[in-house]
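DM from R.C. (forwarded with permission)

"hey, sorry to bug you on a friday — could you get me a structure for this? deadline for the figure draft is monday and I only need the backbone to look sensible"
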Amino acid sequence: MSVFRVKSDFLNLRSTPDKTSGANIIRPLPLAQEVNVLSGAPTDRWWNVETEIDGKKLTGFVSAAFLRQPVSIGKESLIGAAMTEWLRFKQGNGLEDDDPYYRFVGQYWQKLGISLDGRDTDQPWSAAFISFVVHQAKYSSFKFAAAHHFYIRDAIEKQKDGVSAPFWGFKLGNHKPQLGDLVAQWRETSVAFDRLPSGGFKSHCDIIVELGDNEVRAVGGNVGNSVSIRSFQLDSSGFLKPGKVFAILRNNN
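My reply, with the result:
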């Protein structure tokens, strides 16, 4: 059996290889869901697969065009952890003010050893989200912090010094985005890669979970007051377009 991953938000698992009717839909499979291919040639439109969700094994047919080859175990672990939170937040529809979602935010803070319970919605929690997901993926030597600039600066410095680290920070034109990389953006005040402010700076990162020809899609916390996926445009050479995006953190796992 060959292992693949779902590369769209939701891919319908069907009891028969036919999409003319919704009656044969077993259930949608979320982005990054692992499937084992039981049968199907590379040129076939439909593949017979099996997968496991919530402890239940399922078999059926999926469109092969919406599956991708897996990347490294470390990258898949990070993507999987991020997708787990996205699903917990109802694909961006669960809002931070509501129960149980504020409790999930509280878990992010608690993993950092910070005594916030998630109801402190004036406190930005996007970096706590990244730290939580990286921790769930069992990465070591990460600069876990309540603010993005700590680990962004660390990744850039480690790259310049050639020091081993889970992420290395690059200029946008020096690394094409890949699954599991982080998209670094400035907030409120412009930040330049080669001239990072000496102190802290307001910033944000999202985790790339899907690659396209003209864009990548990435998941982040405290995006629209939830855990949400959004798109970042690529230029004609396949690099991230600048703007608020000022660096890309390459996943070395």
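R.C.: lifesaver. Residues 2-68 form a domain with the SH3 type barrels. fold (CATH 2.30.30.40).
me: no worries. The helical segments are 73-88, 101-111, 126-136, 148-161.
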